[in-house]
């Protein structure tokens, strides 16, 4: 049975590796350093700290919360230099019928970004998930290419000149769920169009808006685990294939949904991967950063400290690579995070995966990000 990204995150890395609850508790305890210093200099928001080092900092937001929550809107305006819609440009929201597009919510977010001098990202043009209900009934081998080309062309032209970058294809590789040598995900687009759908999508997007940065976005690229090691190798091969085919891809997006309980973080391997990507001429964006706290202690001080450790350790490595041009968290405040629904804690305590708490106050995770930003080499 295939499982999707959210289900995989719910299962957690322990399900793939056989880590026991007892051993996990021991590793978390050994990884927690109460004396670790997360002190920051000054009160500048993240967007200013990032811009000072030559990259963008932002977050994902959604229409339901930002259109109704003035305090959260103000926080986004203060902290973010780039905004990406969580759901508003996915197929199931954007295309309610095969012959109808609804850009209203995406347009609201684009205007909000412009008003507050933020760049605007597009997410996502091609993905095997978040497809509308009509898709399975109405899309087949005969019309799939026309429908895909129409969707990309219409959407990208609608936002031409307003979008910094597009996640053109999202999660095309699915280690360990693929039985193909290239690791491609056995989803709808591969089944309908074969592996050429990826090249087709990028060429179509490039034709619709030659100025937007076109990004291949994927997950499971962060840790020294069998799954992540294989995923990195497969993604690198796909990027090499893009180069050989002349596919118009300018950047790799790394989702970075981190696990606060995961201790198999190998800075050397991650740096090597980033360097290999950059050596091919690609820019890199961290597109969906957050830290799952599902398995961390309930004590808020300990939990926030472990989440902050994950943020700082990861970003300190990633930002050493000058090809990294943007860091976006998937949400900004614990008040509005997808993990509340998809990665709830077994003890039912509120999750705390983001740099601001539910009262919009800075947490140690914010400090950790600020520290990593301040220490990053200038681009």
TrEMBL record:
| GO BP of this protein | xylan catabolic process
Q: Which reaction does it catalyse?
A: Endohydrolysis of (1->4)-beta-D-xylosidic linkages in xylans
**Protein name stated in the entry:** Beta-xylanase
E.C. no: 3.2.1.8
Which InterPro entries does the entry mention? GH, GH10, GH10_dom
Q: Could you tell me which residue ranges the GH10 domain spans? A: 60-372
Q: Which UniProt keywords apply?
A: Carbohydrate metabolism, Glycosidase, Hydrolase, Polysaccharide degradation, Signal, Xylan degradation
Organism from which the protein derives: Cyanomargarita calcarea GSE-NOS-MK-12-04C
| Family note | Belongs to the glycosyl hydrolase 10 (cellulase F) family.
A Pfam family the protein falls into:
Glyco_hydro_10
Q: Which GO terms describe its molecular function?
A: endo-1,4-beta-xylanase activity
Keyword check for Signal, yes or no.
yes
Q: Provide the taxonomic classification.
A: Bacteria, Bacillati, Cyanobacteriota, Cyanophyceae, Nostocales
According to its UniProt record, this protein's enzyme class is hydrolase
